[in-house]
Glycogen synthase (Sphingomonas xinjiangensis), 485 residues
Amino acid sequence: MPLQLLSVTSEVYPLIKTGGLADVAGALPAALARQDIAVTTLMPGYPAVMQAIGEGEPVRRYENLMGGPGTLRRGRAADLDLLVLDAPYLFARDGNPYLGPDGRDWPDNPLRFAALSRVAADIAEGALGSYAPDVVQAHDWQAGLTPAYLHYNRPARRPPVVTTIHNLAFQGVFPAYLLGTLGLPAEAFSLDGLEYFGAISFLKGGILFADHVTTVSPSYAREITTAEGGMGLEGLLGGRTRYLSGILNGIDTRIWDPAHDPLIPAPFSADDLAGRAGDKAALQREFGLAASPDAFLIASVGRLTEQKGLDLLLGALPALLAEGAQFAILGSGDRALEAAFTAAAASHPGQIGCRIGYDEGLAHLLQAGADALVVPSRFEPCGLTQLCALRYGAVPIVSHVGGLADTVIDASPVALRQRVATGFQFTPSSEPMLIDALRRAAALFREDRAAWKQLQQNGLATDVSWDSAAQEYAALFRKLLTPSA
């Protein structure tokens, strides 16, 4: 009989997505199924999710769940087995699942995601009767209270809980006076509980009370135990290194497949890259860039924030343009960065193209048509865009941090001679070093197309699927169920 895993998450692609968490939660179940692990995903009943499952099957009702009634419904959508928390007063809101129309956090976010964790703990304790998970995986701060509720309730049944950190920067920090409202005892406000610099942290609870903590790359697992990368939780994480591991993310290679991608005009493969020329031309038209097959076209896809190093990239644009390169960017985030990139595109027509927002089709076109993709993050737990870039032959230019360091082999002279390089790395994450990497890439593109093609083919040959990660997760889950482990 398959091992039963309950995955607790606040977003799942393709139902609702703001970032990489949704991609992971959406793709990992299929890979785990090949390891004989059956995943049931617990998530909030946002409007798009409720529409996807229809009425669903009611399996548990709550008269008062963080201030109102709720119904737990079973359903299936997007090839996922789902348990959906239908609580309209908490989740019946269109748009971003965390932010209101004003761009600020919903003020009741602590109640919304405490409710998700409370229900997860109930399921773990056996409240559904017919379904009792063997292991629970709680993703990020939104599910962080799951092991805390189990700890303070001290139930008769308590399966192992794995907390998975996708980005330590988001910790779910809220006022301490909410403890009683959240159904947690006063003793939880302590150094050995949820207390965090005078407030409470959902993620701290997830780390402290989990049986094991994973994050999304080996390098990031090391970085978060340091003062530079731990963001106030380095002491706790450093004390739990025996129970901390980094498992490198993958991408869904069924969706990200350049040979069979319906979102790009010209499919291609590692054996035949010819189609990329058509995709590059389409990308240039879409972003208003000059129609030049020989121009070095660099792309950026993702959140426009300082964490992602987009301010560094903005400062590097003059140097990039001096190399004769073109630049196309798709993303949203910090309003000042949005305005700055929009202004740069207006000042350099034909050289810079900018789209504010997110569009899945354009994201695929950028990967398929760009010669290179730049990810200059100051820190990066894993990163998925560089994995997509490898898969699509857009040579990654990345900072040497977290999962970026783990997934891209720098085009050093030795790596080029040995024909193993897949991209360009730079460190530290600074504007001068980014400019140096951009210049190195532009020079190789101009001067040695055979070497550039080798980089592309090496990237296309890289295994970026979920298979290896699924094997590691499966081994961890089974180890937790072994009494002697």
User: Anything to note?
Assistant: The longest strand covers residues 37-44. The chain is about 35% helix and 20% strand. The radius of gyration is 23 Å.
